[in-house]
Amino acid sequence: MRYLSSGESHGPELTVIVEGFPSNLKVSREAIDGALRRRQMGYGRGYRQKIETDTVEITSGLRFGKTLGSPITIHVVNRDFAHWTDRMSVWDEEPENNKRVVRPRPGHADLAGAIKYDHEDVRNVLERASARNTATIVAAGALAKQLLEHFGMRVHAHVVEIGGESVADEKLPRDWDAWVAATEASDVRTADEEASTRMKKKIDEAKEAGDTVGGVFEVVVVGCPVGLGSYVHPDRKLDGRLAGALMSIQAIKGVEIGLGFETARRFGSQVHDPIHYEEGRYTRPSNGAGGLEGGVTNGQPIVVRAAMKPISTLYNPLESVNMETKASEKATVERSDYCAVPAASVVGEHAVAWVIADALLEKFGGDSIEQIAERLQAYQERVAKR
Ligand SMILES: Cc1cc2nc3c(=O)[nH]c(=O)nc-3n(C[C@H](O)[C@H](O)[C@H](O)COP(=O)(O)O)c2cc1C
Ligand SMILES: C=C(O[C@@H]1CC(C(=O)O)=C[C@@H](OP(=O)(O)O)[C@H]1O)C(=O)O
């Protein structure tokens, strides 16, 4: 299964084509729209989200709401394009009419991208580098999530840290449904109200100072069968594939699986999960591995964390250089978010769902939902005998 996305942040639309998705899954368009809405929300977002109401139009790959096995084309309109038609014209080339962006913003692809692609106007870089494109990750991932849900797997993300303010470990939710409900009710997507107040204060502080903050989110997958991914070759290791999917989200600077970086500070006996055999099945009393050993799922919940750097555009800008005159000047200020960790957690949730669904299809093949179901059931019967 693969997907390809396109679209500039202030162009007419974003497009995603999903290929290799199995046939006969009844798809909920409302669920995709719901996921897109969740991505738009969160304390610290900028004015753009008041303009956009992301919803999908699906123009291929479905018939009467069921997948056909053919490529699925999804469109998300950029409502803001209406305000940018001159500056974002696809055909007319009148750069004189354009106010060019020439003072690259530190932390963005602006400078390196302009040099790499020979652009005089940094807008030619920032339009595609923008995290607006994360709507396409969510749209494709929302399809993947529905596939996983069909087979009893659930994926959810929550925010565990913003600007150094974190959710206390003992407050990390244990009950799945209560956790999801609490996360969704929170405007910073954390189930700990007290931490949420501290996080919002940090975001307010940053906003007041013309500054920005980052944070950490966690994605959890439950119901995954043992044996997705493989230890036999580097590019088949599921831990590497998950890390790659999360790291390629804009502004993600670190990924941890299970105890992650903490493993480096502990003795082995405090890191690895003992193996027991109880009531006819293998059990693990802890999950420091975060559900992955040797790049293979071990049947425990998958737990992955990602660290997001503070938003790059600062209203109180850092020093930059005018690329035309080479004079030292302040960086360009583009309309911006102050904190997008809650939004990024929704993106991460869908990036993870995509990778897991892809691994599920690899293991169980199948062009249709029915074929996958047969193979999954046969496999689970085998696993039960081990
Ligand atoms: C959901 C989301 C929203 C973002 N919003 C903004 C924004 O409003 N302004 C900004 O400067 N950067 C924003 N970013 C981050 C930039 O896109 C990112 O810093 C830039 O692409 C470079 O990141 P990289 O070096 O990790 O690739 C956002 C990122 C995400 C995931
Ligand atoms: C548009 C989205 O995020 C954008 C990501 C972004 C960036 O530089 O990454 C910059 C901002 O763009 P604008 O200047 O148009 O407000 C954000 O709003 C979105 O998430 O839908």
From TrEMBL:
Catalytic activity: 5-O-(1-carboxyvinyl)-3-phosphoshikimate = chorismate + phosphate
InterPro entries, per database record: Chorismate_synth, Chorismate_synth_AroC_sf, Chorismate_synthase_CS
Pathway involvement of the protein, from the record: Metabolic intermediate biosynthesis; chorismate biosynthesis; chorismate from D-erythrose 4-phosphate and phosphoenolpyruvate: step 7/7
Note describing how the cofactor binds: Reduced FMN (FMNH(2)).
Membrane-spanning residues: none
Presence of keyword Flavoprotein: yes
Top enzyme category: lyase
Sites where the protein binds FMN: R128, A129, S130, Q250, A251, G294, K309, P310, I311, S312, T313, R335
Enzyme Commission code(s) on record: 4.2.3.5
Residues that coordinate or bind NADP(+): R39, R45
Family stated for the protein in its record: Belongs to the chorismate synthase family.
NCBIfam families named in the record: aroC (TIGR00033), PRK05382.1 (NF003793)
Task of the protein: This reaction introduces a second double bond into the aromatic ring system.
Name of the protein: Chorismate synthase
Gene designation per UniProt: aroC
